[in-house]
């Protein structure tokens, strides 16, 4: 499995909960957004993690000695080792603390829509929808704002909180990074950073600045005409490096097929017919994100979720498409 959503043996299901029908096969689907407590219970992420010292074996005998500056993180409900090379300075930040920080920050203004555990609990994530919208060019083409939280227990990533827009009409995640503002805040697993967990409150300012920038850039894209030939060139620039093969004829065929799939989505999807999208740069960007989220075939729902949400191939390519287009404005 590409992203390894945890399969919980005790409960005999995936450690994942969602309000979105698209992902219901991966875990539990609920009919309403959740509080942090509800999300942890439904996603089976309400487990604790402890940090324990590592030991080295002496010779062939039974004796072990403490390994200096070497620790492991262990999940207490399963006794699974999550991380094995943790330094003295590494501080465990529990899932409950991250989820509770979310609840404290947003209170009733945002509710969690997805949550889950990856790689046996090494990583835990959640997404929540905010109540306000990003409006494109003053029209009814609106983008919902989502908050994405992720933490790890193996040292692979810091606690991360980020804002990302999702286009309502087709439910596409628009992975975009703006030059004028960041879309995330990070907290490292250290004593110093842990003491400042309230750093997550910086997200409120990030949300406001990101919203303003997103509305400005997406509106500019919606006002910029973009031809089919330009879309085809965008596809070529975006994928040509990935499609190289020893056989030039095979490479050419694969690129033609990929271009056709993107163009078919751009021309036929109902969401592509709005005035903000049809024949515009914003439409070209949505053709790429729409291809990945609505037209591309994936081996499984798990592979699709990973590719789109967890900085996988689709997310990377969508961000790159945004960068190429934004550079033309």
Concise structural overview:
This protein is α+β, with helices and mostly antiparallel strands.
Topology:
Layout: E1 7-8, E2 13-14, E3 16-18, E4 28-29, H1 36-43, E5 49-57, E6 64-75, E7 80-86, H2 95-106, E8 111-118, E9 123-135, E10 142-152, E11 159-167, E12 172-173, E13 184-187, H3 191-194, H4 202-222, H5 228-239, H6 248-268, H7 281-295, H8 301-309, H9 313-326
Parallel strand pairs: 3-4
Antiparallel strand pairs: 1-2, 3-8, 5-6, 6-7, 8-9, 9-10, 10-11, 11-12, 11-13
Report what the structure shows.
The chain has 329 residues and is α+β, with helices and mostly antiparallel strands. It has helices spanning 36-43, 95-106, 191-194, 202-222, 228-239, 248-268, 281-295, 301-309, 313-326; strands at 7-8, 13-14, 16-18, 28-29, 49-57, 64-75, 80-86, 111-118, 123-135, 142-152, 159-167, 172-173, 184-187. It folds into 3 domains: 7-46 and 92-219, no CATH class; 49-86, no CATH class; 221-326, no CATH class. Strands 3, 4, 8, 9, 10, 11, 12 and 13 form an 8-stranded mixed sheet that branches. Strands 5-6-7 form a 3-stranded antiparallel sheet, with no helix packed on it. A two-stranded antiparallel ribbon has the order 1-2. A hairpin with a 4-residue loop joins strand 8 and strand 9 (123-135). Helix 7 packs antiparallel against helix 9. The longest helix has 21 residues, at 202-222. It is globular and about 70 Å long. The model has no long low-confidence stretch (mean pLDDT 87).
